[in-house]
Design brief:
Layout (H helix, E strand, L loop, with lengths): L1 H10 L2 H8 L3 H15 L4 E3 L4 E3 L1 H32 L1 E6 L1 H18 L4 E6 L2 H10 L4 E5 L10 E14 L11 E2 L8 E5 L4 H12 L5 E6 L2 H9 L4 E5 L10 E2 L4 E10 L6 H16 L1
Parallel strand pairs: 3-4, 3-5, 7-11, 8-9, 8-10
Antiparallel strand pairs: 1-2, 5-12, 6-10, 6-12
């Protein structure tokens, strides 16, 4: 009935209000008279051209609008709760984040909201950035700076420091060392991430800056695959510190192979409640990792 009274006040005409409501004018007039009888006063003055609100009518309409707004807010709150209970989250990330940063955040969110579903796309930074820009992904984890023609449409909500460390087969001449120099890799077979990836760019750039051309004998996308190939004695490899145990890996003495990972999302897009909960869990996890 509140919505009916609001429409009467807006149209100032019973027939036009009845048409919008999809009821007959006599039926709407009867409903109004019944409400006025219940309240004990007139809400509208009848005029030759339509109706005008009385003072009591203005008070009633004001409270009716407030009640409707409150009801809509209640519905939104319920929708938000449902989103956290049964929503879906689409995230893109490279091998390091997919294997070592996302699992802890996903588990933290699912502990609280077990109904959430996750869609994880493992891809290089440029592909992840494209997915976030296009709206296919809610969030992405990329190597900074973002290399994308529409990179200005993305915002970095959190940064995560990372470092690439070298691993060598057991019994290798560099086994047991804590540091290495690029000159140590002359003639060494190297197992690396695929060409074109952000990690590979860091590795090739640092080696070239020190006058070394790496002899890459195998290109892979998986950290675990690189680790297994190194264990098999095929060559030395480079992986994120997140993929190694405490104290494992050999650091570059000619300057750390560092990079910054960024959690990114579109500037103009509001996250769903589900994606927002996941973003907070991811940020909390990286700060304690």
């Amino acid at each position: 009935m509140m919505q009916q009274m609001i429409l009467i006040a807006e149209h100032k005409h019973m027939t036009r209000a009845a048409q919008e409501l999809g009821v007959t004018q006599p039926a709407l007039s009867a409903a109004l008279r019944k409400l006025e009888d219940e309240i004990g006063t007139e809400l509208f003055h009848r005029t030759g051209h339509g109706v005008e609100e009385t003072e009591a009518g203005r008070v009633f309409i004001e409270h009716a609008k407030a009640t409707i707004r409150a009801a809509e807010q209640a519905r939104e709150a319920v929708r938000a709760l449902v989103g956290l209970e049964t929503g879906s989250i689409k995230v893109g990330a490279g091998a390091t984040a997919t294997g070592y940063l996302l699992p802890r955040a996903i588990q933290a969110v699912r502990d609280e909201y077990p109904g959430l579903r996750f869609s994880i796309r493992e891809a290089g930074s440029s592909a992840v950035a494209q997915g976030v820009v296009s709206g296919e992904l809610d969030l992405g984890i990329v190597t900074l700076p973002v290399e994308h023609p529409r990179g200005e449409e993305l915002m970095v909500v959190h940064e995560i420091a990372d470092e690439l460390l070298m691993i060598v087969p057991s019994g290798h001449r560099l086994d047991g060392r804590k540091t290495f120099r690029w000159a140590d890799l002359e003639g060494e077979a190297v197992i690396a991430f695929e060409a074109g990836s952000a990690v590979r760019g860091i590795l090739d750039g640092a080696a070239l800056a020190h006058g070394v051309t790496l002899e890459v004998v195998m290109e892979l996308r998986s950290i675990e695959a690189i680790v297994q190939m190194v264990r098999a004695g095929i060559g030395v490899g480079f992986v994120s510190r997140y993929g190694l145990g405490e104290g494992d890996g050999i650091r570059c003495k000619d300057g750390g192979l560092t990079r910054t990972l960024g959690v990114v999302r579109r500037r103009d897009r509001f996250l769903s409640h589900a994606a927002g909960a996941f973003e907070r869990a991811l940020l909390a996890g990286s700060e304690t990792g």
